[in-house]
Amino acid sequence: MKTLVLCVFHVIFLRVYEIQCKSHPKPSCGYPPSQWCRSLEIAIECGVRKQCMELNATRPNPVVPPVEITLYYESLCPGCRAFLTEQLFPTWTLLKDIMNVNLVPFGNAKVQPCIRLCVACVLYAANHAAFPVIYCLESSADVIKSAKPVCVSEPTLLPLTTIESCTRGELGHRLMRQNAVKTHALKPAHTHVPWITFNGEYTSEWEDKAMSTLFNLVCSLYKGIKPPVCTGALKKMDRSFC
Question: Which pTM value belongs to this model?
Answer without folding.
Answer: 0.69
